[in-house]
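TA notes, week 10

Several of you asked for a full example with nothing omitted. So below is the full record: structure tokens for the whole chain, then the designed sequence directly under it. When grading your own attempts, check the secondary structure regions first.
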């Protein structure tokens, strides 16, 4: 079972790195994450009723996430059962799992920020980084634009690559699918807003739990692939200062690896959030740091493929 799951995940890593999310395909059919988002949105519209009290809305959100997770696991298990009986079914299963990884898209979106800064100036950079972060980017200077992009790169290396891969290696297609469902739910409804503080509570807490190990593993991978003891030192020192129980680990490791400072005060809408610095003794990131950060993530991708593929071959022998 474990060897089969590892083989599927090795195929998924390779296909996602090479093909990413083909636009020609998803112009014709909905992406699996889009379908998950539609289901979560429908549950939000139907069950998250303002007239219900806080406790009942929290319970409704928990039931919704649990129900969708069970359905997702069932679909994943059903697809695995069908494909497992086919000669090359594990490759098809890997192709399905690859749609739930974000190696190629993550690299492309972050690289686009530095390209926009270089080709179009600060306004273009602000617009490009605004596509990948939730904060107000209209007043960011160049170092702040690069900080936001590098933070997104580090955090999403965990959420979009290491965490889904981790759960896929343990539980195969159902594992990676359930993780992606929960992570998508957290991004949609796991916010401390009047509408979602109660209904999205379960999604946010479950996402925190599922990312607990992968986030710390991602930080270690960044340090190893950067060949940087400072990355690990900054990570263990600063990670817990982050408002997220998980995002601080890869972000602090990346700050240490690059010798820059990340996080810090930022604006969400009209509110200024007084976030602490990660790697506060570092300098502001410059253009070369974007390339270095992307290079580190590519090395993480390669290491993951080597480890997962190697374990799959050794356990299958």
């Amino acid at each position: 079972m474990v060897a089969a799951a590892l083989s599927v995940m090795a195929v998924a890593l390779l296909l996602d790195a090479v093909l990413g999310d083909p636009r020609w395909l998803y112009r014709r059919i909905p992406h699996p994450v889009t379908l998950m988002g539609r289901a979560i949105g429908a549950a939000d519209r139907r069950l998250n009723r303002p007239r219900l009290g806080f406790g009942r809305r929290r319970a409704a959100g928990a039931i919704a996430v649990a129900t969708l997770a069970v359905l997702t696991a069932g679909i994943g298990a059903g697809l695995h059962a069908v494909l497992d009986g086919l000669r090359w079914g594990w490759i098809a299963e890997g192709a399905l799992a690859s749609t739930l990884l974000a190696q190629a898209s993550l690299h492309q979106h972050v690289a686009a920020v530095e390209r926009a800064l270089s080709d179009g100036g600060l306004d273009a950079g602000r617009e490009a980084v605004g596509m990948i972060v939730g904060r107000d980017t209209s007043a960011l200077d160049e170092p702040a634009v690069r900080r936001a992009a590098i933070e997104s790169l580090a955090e999403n290396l965990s959420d979009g690559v290491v965490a889904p891969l981790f759960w896929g290696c343990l539980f195969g297609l159902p594992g990676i699918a359930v993780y992606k469902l929960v992570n998508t739910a957290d991004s949609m409804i796991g916010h401390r807003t009047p509408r979602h503080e109660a209904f999205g509570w379960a999604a946010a807490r479950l996402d925190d739990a599922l990312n607990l190990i992968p986030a710390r593993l991602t930080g270690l991978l960044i340090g190893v692939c950067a060949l940087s003891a400072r990355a690990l030192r900054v990570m263990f020192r600063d990670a817990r200062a982050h408002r997220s129980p998980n995002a601080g680990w890869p972000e602090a490791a990346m700050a240490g690896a690059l010798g820059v400072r990340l996080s810090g005060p930022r604006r969400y809408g009209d509110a200024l959030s007084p976030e602490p610095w990660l790697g506060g003794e570092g300098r502001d990131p410059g253009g070369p740091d974007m390339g270095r950060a992307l290079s580190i993530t590519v090395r993480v991708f390669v290491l993951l493929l080597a480890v997962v593929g190697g374990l799959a071959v050794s356990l299958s022998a």
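The radius of gyration is 20 Å. Use that as a sanity check on your answer.
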